[in-house]
Amino acid sequence: MDVKDFYFDLPQELIAQDPLEDRASSRLLVLDKHTGEITHKGFRDILEYLKPGDCLVINDTKVIPARLFGVKEDTGAKIEILLLKRRENDIWETLVKPGKKAKPGTRIVFGEGLLTGTVLETVDDGNRLIQFSYEGIFEEILDQLGQMPLPPYITHQLKDKNRYQTVYAKHEGSAAAPTAGLHFTKELLKQVEDMGVKIAHVTLHVGLGTFRPVKVEHVQDHHMHSEFYVVEESEAKKVNDTKEAGGRVICVGTTSCRTVESAADENGRLKAGTGWTDIFIYPGYQFKILDGLITNFHLPESTLVMLVSALAGREHILAAYEEAIRERYRFFSFGDAMLIL
């Protein structure tokens, strides 16, 4: 299976640069995964497709303002840092630009000394381990100095940090938002619950690897980045009870999908626990838990297009994307939504 089999031509102007004023006013393309039939709706019409006894799985990770701008203490040269993952206490794995200025021992100053960082060593992919020093609470300083790490295809400045968070974001740790959830408002989620649909929370901290292009020729040769997930006992029970009763499990976003599929046993039961997953879902994959997916429109030749193709078939997905382009849907993180059932 070749990566180029998942290519489509996307006009640049369809990449959404700003979130809509009203989260739930996005458009919704509904795709029948069996027949390929397409229906055009608004996101609030999602209620028409959910049934009492279904379970909606949401990823309650919270994006941290992980992009920091500082200067080298000795030369004043500008340095940009992206926090990728906390290794221990105040030591973080980071992406540094320009990397050549960040040799071990380099000290970087942020916010006129509110925060300083010392480069400890270079690790995989040229990332740097940095130990931070500060007075007070790290998260509060980060909130003051940091910017949201928007995807590379978004060039506009985000006016309100909260618009790159879901309304149910709770556990800090992501370098990117689980963007399918951005369409939900608290009111819409309450309507979902009121109609007898369970809502199960899982946590998967999204890494920047989610934007990393696939650089190999053959799909099977691609190595996925790993991400940390948590599934609580109570939430696993909601999913398992739904399956046992014959209800459907519908994941909000590819991150929720990857979490439940990673934590499933061979009998299709969701196991509670924590762990790291590097699951790569592409056509030929047999889903153990997921029945349906709410998702955004993804980049050509990306692992996410491969994931949705595993669920609905490559031909159906590419035809749906062609239709979305014809109908001028908005693409990617701040774009419109798709429901695959």
Globally, the shape reads globular
Alpha carbon gap, first and last residue? 24 Å
Based on secondary structure, the structural category is: alpha/beta
Give Rg in angstroms: 20 Å
Brief write-up:
This protein has 2 domains: 3-63 and 160-340, QueA-like (3-Layer(aba) Sandwich), CATH 3.40.1780.10; 67-145, QueA-like (Thrombin, subunit H, Beta Barrel), CATH 2.40.10.240.
How would you summarize the topology of this molecule?
Blueprint: E1 27-31, E2 38-42, E3 55-59, E4 61-63, E5 67-72, E6 78-88, E7 91-97, E8 107-110, E9 115-122, E10 128-134, H1 138-145, E11 171-174, H2 186-194, E12 198-204, E13 227-231, H3 233-244, E14 249-252, H4 254-262, E15 273-277, E16 292-296, H5 303-312, H6 314-326, E17 337-340
Parallel strand pairs: 1-17, 3-12, 3-14, 4-11, 14-16
Antiparallel strand pairs: 1-2, 5-6, 5-8, 6-7, 7-10, 8-9, 9-10, 12-13, 13-15, 16-17
Helix pairs in contact: 5-6
